[in-house]
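Let's practice the habit of predicting before peeking. Look at the sequence and jot down your guess about where helices and strands might fall. Then scroll down.
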Amino acid sequence: MTTPRILFAANLHWNAGSSHMLAEYANAAATAGYEVGVSTQLSRLDERVGVHLPLVPDIRWATHLVLVFEGRQFLSDPQLDLCDAIPRHRRVVIDPDGHWGETVTIGTDTSAGTYPAASWHSLYSRLTDLVLQPKLRGTPPPGARVFSYFGMPATRCRAGRMPAADDLPFQVQYIGSNWWRWTSLTELVIGARRATPPVTRLRVCGRWWDGETCAGHETATTSVPGWLRRHGVVVAPPVPFGTVVSEMALATISPILVRPVLTTLGFVTPRMFETVASGSLPVFTDDVSYIRELYGEEAEGFQLGTDPGDVLARMVRDPEPYRRRLVRVQRRLQAEYGYPRLLVTLAKLLG
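Done guessing? Here is the structure:
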């Protein structure tokens, strides 16, 4: 029997998007008993990310095709026609931004993004009969099924073996770009500074945190120049490819910030897993409380509630009880959401 060859296509960048996930799937392929590749004919690849991924130049290599759409509709008409080289029943769309289904709008954030909602439905219907969404809460829309897509990387450090809080470079650190996350981060910073004693060793790594914006997405990436630095936050560039989890391990606490539309949809995000894998303590606001379904009963200890500063101060002062909770979460997620297991599930969905 021929080994299934699963080909992914996406809009990929070295420091954002699905590139890290596809590298994880490629690493898991041998364990799961499959081959995994990334299509150069269909994907958009920046000049740096290609060296980190198993690129495949000919779509005919594949037995199955997985198309991942985040913010951009990256396929041209000739590329859409090329997808027909793979039988329709062996093609699937991954929809991590909620483009399929009724449009959700929260303030200026919308699940349709910069495209008409109808164009997403037309595109997905052209490609497949099966849309997969990483939905943790609620029922998926008609035509969609639940599949996490994002999974648990290898554990960087067991939470119970993390260095003492005073020996880590940062007390609180967020790694990721500003994509409708400015308000969430600044509220967290204010809470940290008002804590007793104040939580002061803070860092953010990523793009669009200091006044610069993404062209065409100015609202999503808005920030106030100098605000973070004035509040004692070190602002650093994105971390190198493949080092997100290890960089998170440099802080006692790593907040999980989720854009408004995804919280309303109840979607999982990569940070929900990467933070746990790092050994850094995850914290989240009340609007992300659905994460309890992922972390189990241990989630309660990581919810910021109405007094974020108090929770942050207690975690920094005495992290060990929280780390014991996190060890149990690490074990649970590694067993249920490891990438080899996700890849097997994905292959079964593809048929």
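How did you do? The longest strand covers residues 170-175.
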